[in-house]
């Protein structure tokens, strides 16, 4: 009887020891995993901080890093700075524009300090406006601030375009055709903006910018200058932070020029004279 009890006690002890060992090993493994995750999070944060340091360097200097630069032991960053715009062909804004929000496309150059150069830069007489199809069909409104060569005055012209014929009877927008292959996209609406019909002579008057606003719905906006080259719209900064362990993080910043005053979108305007 005593032998049987002793055997049972030994068996129970072994079972308890086995369970305790399993729990201990599980805790050790979990601790090791937590330590690894913590190290990866810390290294990821260091790589991200290095990438952000590269962005700061580019913003301050206006230049890329010219190759990998050592930030601290085993930590480097590599930054490139490229122009946005300064090319012919379609140009799309980087993200969809919310309804009644305005995107600014510059039609004049800027100096090294970011100030407007008030001499004709975009001298073509037309430019195509493009916008995406959406569940609620968007229309677009465009405001064109410009400087008149004859007297040096600053003026505003405006156009509005809508692909929905039933709305144009009330909103008085210019009706445009249905969506098609425009601005390099398969289903975009298009309107051709002719500056001369607005009393602007681009070769003489200075086109400052286009303020483009989607109406009725958010939309992806773009323009197509054809073979004409758009002025620089700003800079794109790509910065990659790297650690010797192989961890890398990347930050992309789009640096646009300061926009013109929003009052241009709200002033009273007329394509002919009017009085009070």
Write the layout of secondary structure elements.
Layout: H1 2-61, E1 69-72, E2 75-85, E3 91-92, E4 103-106, E5 126-132, E6 139-147, E7 154-162, H2 165-171, E8 174-175, E9 180-182, E10 185-194, E11 206-207, E12 209-215, E13 221-224, E14 232-243, E15 248-256
Parallel strand pairs: 7-8
Antiparallel strand pairs: 1-2, 2-14, 3-13, 4-12, 5-10, 5-13, 6-7, 6-11, 6-12, 9-10, 14-15
What does it look like?
This protein has 276 residues and is α+β, with helices and mostly antiparallel strands. It has two domains: 1-84 and 232-271, no CATH class; 87-230, Jelly Rolls (Sandwich). It contains two helices and 15 strands. Strands 4, 6, 7, 8, 11 and 12 form a six-stranded mixed β-sheet that branches. It has a five-stranded antiparallel β-sheet with strand order 3-13-5-10-9, with no helix packed on it. Strand 1 and strand 2 (75-85) form a beta hairpin. The chain is elongated and about 110 Å long. The model has no long low-confidence stretch (mean pLDDT 87).
């Amino acid at each position: 009887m005593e032998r049987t009890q002793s055997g049972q006690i030994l068996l129970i002890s072994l079972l308890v020891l086995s369970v305790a060992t399993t729990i201990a090993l599980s805790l050790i493994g979990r601790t090791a995993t937590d330590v690894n995750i913590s190290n990866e999070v810390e290294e990821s944060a260091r790589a991200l901080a290095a990438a952000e340091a590269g962005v700061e360097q580019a913003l301050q200097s206006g230049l890329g890093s010219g190759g990998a630069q050592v930030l601290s032991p085993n930590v480097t960053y590599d930054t490139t700075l490229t122009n946005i715009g300064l090319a012919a062909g379609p140009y799309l804004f980087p993200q969809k524009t919310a309804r009644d929000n305005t995107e600014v496309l510059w039609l004049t150059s800027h100096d090294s300090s970011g100030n407007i150069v008030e001499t004709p830069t975009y001298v073509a007489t037309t430019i195509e406006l493009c916008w995406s199809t959406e569940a609620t069909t968007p229309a677009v409104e465009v405001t064109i601030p410009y400087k008149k060569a004859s007297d040096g005055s600053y003026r505003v012209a405006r156009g509005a375009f809508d692909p929905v014929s039933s709305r144009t009877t009330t909103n008085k927008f210019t009706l445009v055709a249905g969506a098609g292959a425009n601005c390099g996209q398969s289903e975009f609406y298009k309107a051709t903006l002719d500056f001369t019909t607005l009393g602007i002579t681009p070769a003489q008057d200075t086109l400052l910018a286009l303020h483009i606003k989607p109406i009725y719905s958010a939309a992806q906006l773009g323009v197509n200058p054809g073979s004409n080259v758009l002025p620089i719209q700003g800079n794109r900064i790509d910065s990659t932070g790297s650690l010797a362990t192989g961890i890398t993080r990347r930050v992309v910043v789009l640096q646009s020029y300061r926009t013109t005053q929003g009052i241009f979108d709200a002033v009273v305007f007329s394509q002919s004279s009017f009085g009070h």
